[in-house]
Amino acid sequence: MRKLRSLLVLVFVATTAFAQQPKRFTISANGGCALVSAQNNSTVGIIVSGTWVGTLTPTLQIAGVSNAPTAATSVTPTNSTTSQTTITTNGGFRGAVNGFSQFNLCATAWTSGSAIVDLFATQADSSLSGGGGGGGGSVTQGTSPWVDNVSQFGGNNVATGAGASGVGVPRVTVANDSTATATPLVVRQSDGTNSITAALSAWGTAPGGTQVQGVNSDVFIGGVIAANSAAGVQKVGIVGGTAGASVDASVAPGTAPTNGFPVLARYANSAPGPTTGQTLGVQSDSAGDLFVRPFRRSQVVCQATTIASSSSATTIISAQAASTFADISNLMITVTPAATTDIGFTATLSDGTISYLYDMDTGALATATADPTQVNINFNPAMPATTAATAWTLQLSVATVTVHITACFEKGLAN
Description:
The chain is mainly β. It has 1 helix and 27 strands. The longest helix is centred in the first third of the chain and has 17 residues, at 2-18. A hairpin with a 2-residue loop joins strand 14 and strand 15 (233-234).
């Protein structure tokens, strides 16, 4: 009896020694290590806690060899599938130790604090080893123990092949990033009793069969069938305000609608200056009236000139900027009367290309009936300049008279 008890004690002691217990270490300086035996084990579990700043590096070792070198390894966080070769934060980790006798976790850089390291090495699952002890096992997908013949879903026999859905038919979710295959996924619609079986037809043609697949159905807006203005053309109506007041009005005289779409005009104290191809809104003047004048005030310019005892061509309208024409809208020419004898002469107006002639005389102060001639012309439309950026000149046929000229012109572009 005593021999039996001694045998049981030896078995218990041997089993206890073989099953390794978790170990706790405190690392507070560079070079400090936590280690655990990896012999007959496949995985080491690691939990790091405490307040610390540093770097812990895992290594593997065959400790039975003199001056045993270490081999670099990696660990994987318990909440991730990405392995890492160092640990710099608290958390749980796992590392593989197959084929080695010792696992080390040492400080390779240290700044401050103390890290608490818990290590626990576990054996490989003998049920996956394929016989024998201590080694790792392998299985093949499709062979035991990875074969499950599912015969029921929700307590009902699994349905296979084509047919209506119902009990025993598992729900299948298709990922939205799945690649289309040569065989398309067929979806049948049903109201719970009847399946819609008619094939889709071309738009505008009702499909055959007793149940129509939903093409060519009426369009509902706010629960009401939309009206059409012509075959296949939806009628579009516009109502105004939250109360839905009508904004339609007839072309012929009729009752004004409650609401309407106003046409806005914008006031600008300077010309907008559009370029070719640009559009702009309707404009108003400073009084709020619609701007309908053919020219802005800034586009109308007057220039006064005096020619005294000269028969040379004299500029009466200066050349404008490039691409800008000076079209004469008003021309006034007055003559200083002569003392005793009328002097007849010709005034020639020119834009550098075309000349316009005006015959005049000075009259005489000594002869009451001999009044001087005057030119006062309003051109409507304005007399156009032949070319842009060109001056207008006036030339007298004699050099013995004095005339005064006032010329007003409109600045404009070619079109």
